[in-house]
Amino acid sequence: MNIKSDLTPDEQSQGRIRQENIERIMKAAEKVFAANGFRGATTAAIAEEAGLPKANIHYYFGTKAKLYRAVLDDIVALWLSSFRDIGEHDDPEKTLTDYIRAKMDLSQNRPNASKVFANELIRGAPRINSYLRTELKDWVAEKSAILDHWIADGRMAPVDSERLLFHIWAMTQTWADFEAQWAAVLGRKDGLKPADFNAATDAITTMVLRTCGLMPMPSRR
Amino acid sequence: MNIKSDLTPDEQSQGRIRQENIERIMKAAEKVFAANGFRGATTAAIAEEAGLPKANIHYYFGTKAKLYRAVLDDIVALWLSSFRDIGEHDDPEKTLTDYIRAKMDLSQNRPNASKVFANELIRGAPRINSYLRTELKDWVAEKSAILDHWIADGRMAPVDSERLLFHIWAMTQTWADFEAQWAAVLGRKDGLKPADFNAATDAITTMVLRTCGLMPMPSRR
DNA sequence: TCAAATCCTGACCAAATGGTCAAGTTTTAA
DNA sequence: TTAAAACTTGACCATTTGGTCAGGATTTGA
Questions:
Q1: How many Cβ pairs within 8 Å bridge chains A and B?
Q2: In B56-89, which positions are buried (b, 16+ CB within 10 angstroms) versus exposed (e)?
Q3: Which of A80, A109, A112, B130 has the most CB atoms in a 10 Å sphere around its CB?
């Protein structure tokens, strides 16, 4: 029995060269799509970024739309994998703190992924609507139910749990999507530094924990 | 003396027709740029949206880049005008509440303006960097100084005032830029309703006021 | 070793795109 | 009334774009 028959059709045809090139192209594509959106990105620009002739991009992905789809699927998978760990029996403070930290790490390490996703949302999410209406909606329902449970158990102050989650995303992702704005306003000519991400993480965490009554308020002077 | 000589060169040549057409074109352009970014937008699409032949767009604006510039300038002016009213002697609670409300009204009423701006920021803000580094930076410095003053006077709890402002923007603008996401997750098939914006406004206000110690924490159950 | 499979890519194409222009129509102001 | 100014737009153009393809190079597996 051929070992390869255990792999999906996709993986079967992936030799070393194929895998390397696909990775290279997708990385380049993520960058170009992030900076220009789907319509604004050109296959020529992606090819140059990847250091390959344009025809090579089409050899592996066929069309620009399919390449974009592949990049988007990759990002959705990344998103979902980062969404796992909030459980009912965890400690509210630690859970929220860890979650904010995890989202901020993504913003810092995969800003282009966040930007591609943002571009897609601004455009009205034509290609990921079903993901939003299913997986993401379910995730929100599940996690906000856990927050509500914590609230009902008196483990944290009453909050609008759905909006709390939305606003955590908004605050964490702004540091990836709109980095240019914050760098300019903060006077960081070479882009944001790790310290900036730490300061932002602390500010968001403080905000969320105070809102949830999980952090003692400092006494006013 | 000609009455028109009191006007800027720009305004001098603006008869009724000119003004109407420019308005129409810019409105259409804002929509198309919002949905596609600068590179992805086509003059043909803008022309169709405006209900005018393409050559007419070029008659008034010359090039796509100049039209984009005009749209962007319009939005920056709108942003700046909404940024005015935070004064040192105002009441912290009222001021923050009003400011959040004003930003949310902009998100609700001018989502395309917000989206064009967001597109520009995602792309690295090549055309508005000087605005970010000057007017906006100054505004942040000025307003965060006022917050710090309030804190020093014991009128609100200590917070990272700069990040607080950044995060208010992030939370309020997400309701314009990523409306598609929130509508999908909330199951609003025809887009967000006014009630959704009100709920978001309340959630953000609660969050900010609790963070600043300006709203009594509800007792835990 | 060697043939099949995979990979590579310059040259090419049709369609789309930003922009121009000339010839006309409408508006304005004296 | 009338001539200048402003406006309109179909037809057109050079460039860019996504995509194709044939023929050759390299890798793979038995």
A1: 196
A2: ebeebbeebeebbebbbebbbeebeeebeebeee
A3: A112
d(CA A55, CA A57): 5
Å from B90 (CA) to C21 (C1')? 59
Q: What is the DSSP string of A15-34?
A: -HHHHHHHHHHHHHHHHHHH
How does pLDDT run across A95-131, given as a tens digit for each residue?
Answer: 999 999 999 999 999 999 999 999 999 999 999 999 9
Residue B162 phi/psi, 5-degree rounding, is -60, -50
Best CA proximity match to B93, nearest among B135, B144, B150: B150
Residues comprising chain B, all counted: 221
Question: B177-191, pLDDT tens digit by residue?
Answer: 999 999 999 999 999
Note the residue count of chain A.
Answer: 221
What is the torsion angle, in degrees rounded to the nearest 10, for the CA atoms of residue B36, residue B40, residue B44 and residue B45?
A: -20
Q: How far is B196 from chain A (nearest CA, A)?
A: 10
